[in-house]
Amino acid sequence: MFFHTKELQYNAKPSNPDPVYAKKLQEILGGQFGEMTVMMQYLFQGWNCRGDEKYKDMIMDIGTEEIAHVEMIATMIAQLLDGAPVREQEEAAKDPAIGAVLGGMNPQHAIVSGLGATPTDSVGYPWNSRYTIASGNLLADFRANLNAESQGRLQVVRLYESTTDPGVRDMLSFLIARDTMHQNQWMAAIEELEQNQKAIVPSTFPQTLEKQEVSYSFMNFSNGEESSKGRWASGKSMDGISNFEYVANPKAMGQIPKLKPSPAYIHGSVMPGQVPPGIDKANFDQANQGNELH
């Protein structure tokens, strides 16, 4: 059960309206790494959690907090759109300098949402659930969560740098701080899980069933050998089980693929000199008489 309180988690009060910046803020609301994504990702991970109750409780804590962040950003977008209806834009656009600025407003903010936020990114692409990851494997999910928070914090920082509005920056500084905590949180949870299981996901699959001779080989598949200097190319593997090996000139280990012709009902391509399967050769030759290439 969720219970809504009227107070925001933190202030969302811009100093001045800015419809162009409202469009930019849509990215951290409904974009791939926006607050809607982490909100839904964490909630579904929590609802589906079958592990230790402390992990479920932690996931639900952060998932519920992300609902508050969605509300804060939606509120900020709506207030950035205050005082910027279409008719005022059109009037302002008579001045070329002002028009160049206001011309970047998302028209859907006026036409579709009535000067409010929309569940879309900064170019109007609708948010969708394919952005989310909830696999049921906590280690895999927590690593995905760390990536989401890393990308999200990066985008918020870039937005912070692109405005001078003190009210907007105040809200963004709060979100940046929470993303700092959330990255630390997921790193702590990942470290804890790795202490109790192998670092490779899934840890329950018998490694003896792998082609183990290539399990720890870094293969040089591009020009240059600078990659041989990395931690991933020599020394103990990160899971502590083996040692990395650098393969400077990897060799092909598979067959040369050769597929059979498709059956007649597929109506695939017919190669020179080939009679499609199930077709009488004499009839085929007669039907194609005169079609030979010269």
UniProtKB/TrEMBL annotation:
<feature type="binding site">
    <location>
        <position position="222"/>
    </location>
    <ligand>
        <name>Ca(2+)</name>
    </ligand>
</feature>
<dbReference type="InterPro" id="IPR009078">
    <property type="entry name" value="Ferritin-like_SF"/>
</dbReference>
<keyword id="KW-0479">Metal-binding</keyword>
<feature type="binding site">
    <location>
        <position position="182"/>
    </location>
    <ligand>
        <name>Mn(2+) 1</name>
    </ligand>
</feature>
<protein>
    <submittedName>
        <fullName>Manganese catalase family protein</fullName>
    </submittedName>
</protein>
<dbReference type="GO" id="GO:0046872">
    <property type="term" value="F:metal ion binding"/>
</dbReference>
<keyword id="KW-0464">Manganese</keyword>
<feature type="binding site">
    <location>
        <position position="149"/>
    </location>
    <ligand>
        <name>Mn(2+) 1</name>
    </ligand>
</feature>
<dbReference type="InterPro" id="IPR027407">
    <property type="entry name" value="Mn_catalase_C"/>
</dbReference>
<dbReference type="InterPro" id="IPR039377">
    <property type="entry name" value="Mn_catalase_dom"/>
</dbReference>
<dbReference type="InterPro" id="IPR007760">
    <property type="entry name" value="Mn_catalase"/>
</dbReference>
<dbReference type="Pfam" id="PF05067">
    <property type="entry name" value="Mn_catalase"/>
</dbReference>
<dbReference type="InterPro" id="IPR012347">
    <property type="entry name" value="Ferritin-like"/>
</dbReference>
<feature type="binding site">
    <location>
        <position position="66"/>
    </location>
    <ligand>
        <name>Mn(2+) 2</name>
    </ligand>
</feature>
<feature type="binding site">
    <location>
        <position position="69"/>
    </location>
    <ligand>
        <name>Mn(2+) 1</name>
    </ligand>
</feature>
<keyword id="KW-0106">Calcium</keyword>
<feature type="binding site">
    <location>
        <position position="220"/>
    </location>
    <ligand>
        <name>Ca(2+)</name>
    </ligand>
</feature>
<feature type="binding site">
    <location>
        <position position="61"/>
    </location>
    <ligand>
        <name>Ca(2+)</name>
    </ligand>
</feature>
<feature type="binding site">
    <location>
        <position position="224"/>
    </location>
    <ligand>
        <name>Ca(2+)</name>
    </ligand>
</feature>
<feature type="binding site">
    <location>
        <position position="35"/>
    </location>
    <ligand>
        <name>Mn(2+) 1</name>
    </ligand>
</feature>
<feature type="binding site">
    <location>
        <position position="57"/>
    </location>
    <ligand>
        <name>Ca(2+)</name>
    </ligand>
</feature>
<comment type="similarity">
    <text>Belongs to the manganese catalase family.</text>
</comment>
